[in-house]
Amino acid sequence: MNKWKKGAVTLACDELYERIKGKKIGLMVNTTAIDNEGNLLIDAIVDRGVAQVEFFFGMEHGVRGNLYAGGGDSDPVDAKTGVKIVSLYKYPRLQPPVEWVEKVDAIVFCAQDVGVRHWTYTPWMMLLIETCAKTGCEVIILDRPNPIRGDIIEGAPAEEKYVGKHLLSGFAYPLRHGMTIGELALMYNDVKNVGAKVTVLKMQGWKRDMWYDETGLVWVPGSPNMPDTDSPLFFAATGLLQSSNFSLGIGTTTPFEFVGDPSFDGEALARELNSRDIPGIYFIQKYYMAMTYLKPQEGNGRELVLCNGVYMVINDRDAWRPVQTQLHIIDALAKLFPDKVNFEYEHHARGRMCTDAICDALKAGKSVLPIAEEWKQGAEEFKKAREKYLLY
Q1: Average pLDDT for 109-132
Q2: Alpha-carbon distance 211 to 178, whole Å?
Q3: Nearest-CA neighbor of 120 among 361, 352, 369, 376?
Q4: What residues are paired with 250 via a beta bridge?
């Protein structure tokens, strides 16, 4: 029989099983929550019978990863375990409902973060903490690594006018935050004066300068657009542009690694970006088939089209700063294709960015590159503010 190979980092699963023993619990986890033996955490907990599992909270892509983004669980009961599924898409603000939380002693949260603020699962954890504070229910977080290191911060914290307005921002923290889900939970609970009972079960062996592929833990995609351990870095480099009218490679096997459109000149874009000598990254002209937005007069939605653009190749991930690179990409697109690019194609573009600075600069015909210097100051201030919440 094949044996599961353990790596440098181990999760506090045994501590979790001990902590929930004899309790009535709910589980807010997804398919990225794998225990140290390679088992899906929801199955491991139910199979062990250490606690009475009352329900699963269904987040994006569903409890077992069988749903499209933005869809709730269609089945009211999990077929394998027989446990009730409560789809959070059925509730206002996608907030975990009080009427379910008050049924249990604790709720276990575990979902792999990607180290980037606008990743839905982690802000969803913050909504859970809010609800649990109202009922006195304990939130138990099985901590997991930050896949793009815990010692690098990029981007200023979200502007207050956008904080908590949607699922893409839980509180005022930077785009590349350098924290684990447990650390973010502790910070959120404190700085927002939520007052919940939050317990974080720490990993063993994780160091802040680790990349995910150095942990020895298996990478399970939390989304079809996060296929491997490099994906979070590319997400940090292009993810803000999901509300634009061009392609980031969604629908390819390497999402977020492309920037293109049927109408772009990929050679010109590659030449422009490479001329900027951005450390750690190189741009190659590339044709590719991807999902791109239909033009407004053709109706809403996406279609599969041939795009011309650039493909990003990392040549030094330690030196590369993807958030700063994203500003260069925006700046280059605005310079080369001003009549073809709409950075606010979707109404929530500014909310995804959690700032008005980028769109306001573009509307005024100004470069967005000076924003990078402003963001550095915000990142330094956050670095100091987060210190007392760091667990590693």
Answers
A1: 96
A2: 11
A3: 352
A4: 252
